[in-house]
Every structure is written in structure tokens, then in C-alpha cells.
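Figure S4 source data
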Amino acid sequence: MSVDVTGAAWDGQRWAARVSLAAAALAGLLPLAYGGLGGVLLLAAGLAGAAVTAAALWWTLTRRGPERWLAAVVAVVTPTLLVVLFAVTLGWVLLLSLALWTVAVSSGRYALRSTGRLPRRTKEHRARPVERPFLIMNPRSGGGKVERFALKEKAEGLGARVVLLDPEEHQDVTALARAAVAEGADLLGVAGGDGTQALVAAVAAEHDLPFLVISAGTRNHFAMDLGLDRTDPSTCLDALTDGVELHVDLGFAGGHPFVNNASFGAYAAVVQSPAYRDDKIGTTLELLPDLLTRQRGPRLTARVGDTTLDGPQAVLVSNNAYRTGDPAGLGRRRRLDSGRLGVLGVKVDSAAEAAALLLAPVPQGLVVLSAREAVVDADRTEIEVGVDGEALVLPTPVHCRIAPGALRVRVPRRRPGVPVEQPRLNWRRLRKLAATAGRG
């Protein structure tokens, strides 16, 4: 989308691009000029150290016993020594270089932001009043947030019917939601983890009812991407009195709904272990060596459009794509209404490939795709799948699809977690902006 830019704004845009390019060049050249040949050797040492660190991390995950601990020591010591080496050798030059890089990033983003080419935000729709909201709350979720923030009492004070799950007894939340709909509920909501959110969200989507997310889980990834306040879940209840609707997508893996993602391969196999909940780190370190070296677990094949991934150790199918290429945005999704699944595939078979995964501009071991459908198959009739963190075993092949705009999420009008969208740095576009003369 293009916008009309005044002459002053256009000049500011051009000069911001020029400042960004100049600062980036100085940030890279200053340490080399100051150190001379030593600066070049220091750069080479930095690249080599990064490669050694990546390789050591791979050995830490794929070895056991003394070899693992030795590799772990190398993975910690190598970057520490590099930081000390750079600080001692460059001193104030390193600090100045970091400051110049900060200027380059901020100026570049300002220049690109002023072009008006920001990613589209999810459209807000008017929310109709509800009379019979129904909420399911898990008192154990998030370390007891339901009780700590008095969510049940506050929700009931706003006219909602609340059902607390019994920690000592398994309850079918899908059945509870369907029964509430049959009794006339005109809104469904959940205070709990993302797995519970997904199950009730599917019922809400099926009956075209608004769905309320209360960020009372442990990680609250779905709430984070909706912009909800994860520090105080009671603020999510404001949506009942002053809310808007976001029409977002809903993913399905073999018929099982997910609001975040479905994972296949190493992670999915780890979370299946009965010991995982009590000892996550220990269980992961015990199982990963056999999983990553393919001595255990299925051999996966993922088909995404015309692309086939053969033998990846892990495949992540997400409800909309996760951001890549921006360290500040990793783990977040820019949109929830693109109508497309995100697919990440990882295949690493050696320490050298692990290093390339970290250093290569376009690593062969990482595949990033998007599509409306994806099929994950294996060399066995059933495979482990982590669906929004819930451990399942599904028959193969597992068909993943997305239902565009199927979910009407009711959120507060004011959401402190909605980030200010920053454009991705595009050096080619910055060069074009900097070279432009006169008004555009």
C-alpha cells in the first residue's frame, strides 16, 4: 500500500535511509580499521567460534556421558572467550560499533516505516452484546492463576456462568462446551492452557459463537499473539463489557484443532514420555540422542504443496507462520488471519550441518514454507504428535489444514500486548531510498 508523502517527510525518509546505511558500514568497518590485520583475524575468530559453538551444541544433544559434558563445556566456554577477546582487543571501538549498529537499525526502520508498507494488522469487528457467556476454568493452570486473580468471582460478577475443572478427575471440555451451547450459551471461553483453548475454540467455531481467551495458562502463546495481557489475566474479562472481535484462523491436525501448532518428530516424541512432566530437562537430554541420530522414532516425510521434506528430525505445522529472520520476533506470529499454515522443517545429520544451520544465510537444514494444507507421513502406522502441547498418537498420514477466519475471538478493545509493528530491515530497499533524488 502506498501513501502520499509530503516533501519534508520524503526528505526525512531519504536521509534516514542514508544514515542507516552509513552507520551500518561504519559499524562493520570501524573494528577492522582499528585492528588492522588483527581486526580481520578477530572477525575470522568470531566466525570460527560461532561454528565451534554450534557444533558443540549438536554434540551436547546427540552424545551421552563424558562426551556430552565436554561438549557442553565447549559450548559455554567458546562464546565466553570470544566476548572477552573482542572486549579486550577492541575496547571502546566495540561499544561504538554496537552504538552505530543500533543507529543503523532504528534509522532503517524509520525510513521503511515512513513508506507506509507495514504488514496489515488483523481487522477489528464490532462485538455484539452477549447475555449467557459460559467459561471453563482450570484451577491448576499457570500455577493457580484462576484463584490468584479471582477469575471465577470476577467473571460471575459480569454475568458469566463458570465451570471449574476438577483437578482430581479428567473432564471432557469439548462435551462441557457442547452442553453449554445446547443450553443457550452465546459465548464460550477458557481460562487455561492452549490445548484446552483449542478444544473449546473448535466448538465455538462450529456454532459460530464468539470465543473468549483468558490468559491463565503457563505460556499463553495464543494470548500473546492476540495482544492480551499475560501478566494479569483478569483484564481479559474486559472483553465481556468493552470488546471487539478478531476473526482468526483455526488449524487442524488429523481432525484435532490447534490454535498454535502441531509438532512432529523429536519434540513430539519427548513429550510422550511419562517422565517428561516431572523432569523436562532430564527426560529431553536422555531421549534426544537416539531421536536426533535416528536410532529411535519414525522416519518422517512431509508434503507441502509441490515440496517434499524427506527425513526431517522435526516438523512444526503452525496456525499461521511464525516470524523468522527477526530475533526480536521469534516465537511470535505477525498475523492470525492469513489463511495459511506455516511449516518449519529441520534436518541436521552432523556437527558441520548444525554449524551451517547457524551461520549460512540460507541453511539447507531449515525449510520454511506456507500452505493451506500439509501432510506428514511416516514409516509406521502411528506417530506421536504434540498438538498445542498435548501429547497425542495419531494414525498416519496426518493431514493438517487451516480453516480461514473460522474463529471469532472476543478481545478487550484496549490490549497492552499488541506490539507496534516494525518493518523488516531490507537493505536493498534502503539503498534505493538513499539514492533517490527529489520527491517520490
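Figure S5 source data
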Amino acid sequence: MLKHRGFPGRLPSTDFQFTIRRPNPKGVTPLSQRERRSDRRPADKRADAGFMKALWEHFGPHPFERGNLDAGRLSWLFGREVVPATDPFDPAHYESLLVINEAAARAAFPEAFED
């Protein structure tokens, strides 16, 4: 499992996790597309925006390996703002390649792209 050095481990001053420390011994948690409803808590929305900002600052428009990125946090963006970079795509593999769908990400999280 690739560890993304320099990527924030969590949203500052919160317990919202962005990365994992070690591979899951029971198997890789597969990515799945989670529905974001309009009634989500403001803290959850800030965590999504903070994670998108960290992804953009670390990887930009280039494909990146899933590696130690948290599957739960990534699943909130998967299928919309973060999409598979290869076909076929294995959602339960740490080496799977992803890429940011910049247009969708800018529309959903404009604050993540502000300087």
C-alpha cells in the first residue's frame, strides 16, 4: 500500500480521518458511491470540502493511486468528483488509479479551489 507522504492525515482540529496507517488485515475496504443528501451535518460538509482541497493540492488533475487514502472519506466523492482513471477498475485494491473530475469538483466544492 502506497503511503502518500505529505498528505494530511485528518481535517485539522477534528476527528475526520483522511488517511489510514496500515492495510486492513481483513481485506481492502472497497470504494462505493455514497449519496450526499442536502441535510448532512455542516461538519461533514466541511470534511468533504477539506478532503477535496487536500486531494487537489496534492495531486491536481493527474491520476493518483488510492494507496492509504481513507475509503470511507473517498467514497463520499467517488463516482462524481473522484472517478476511476483506468478501465477496468477494481474498487477493492490499494493500487487502483483515480483522478479528480475537475469540472464536477469545482461545481460541488468551489471553496476547495480558492487560493
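The chain has three helices and three strands. Residues 42-59 form the longest helix (18 residues).
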